[in-house]
Write the structure tokens for this entry.
Amino acid sequence: MIRLRPAEPQDAWAAYQLRKQIQPDLQLAAHDHWWTDTWEHRFMAYDGPVLVGIIRLSQEGVIHLLVAEKERGKGLGTQMLQAIKRVAKELGFTRLQAHVEPANIASQRAFLGAGYRPTQFEVIL
């Protein structure tokens, strides 16, 4: 069962390590600037004692999900998305959304598995 806890300033390094998995060229200074100057709800996700990812929620209700590379394929993204629904409701959100790349099939499956539904379509011209 996934447990979310609010991210704290000392989580900056762990978040940086997670972000580097999908942004290998990310510089620490850029991450630190983002970590300190970006407003959003951030939650560290744990499966037992193991940090498995981070999930972020903007003030507009946009979700950003990142599951650690070695933890992917275990259904943890779906569990994180289910958990954030409960937290978001407690924070007063009435709607959540995400922007998932068409090629990101794993993320699409996670959102669908957590009860989210696609509502927007686009085409790049």
Remarks:
- Strands lie at 2-6, 41-47, 50-57, 63-67.
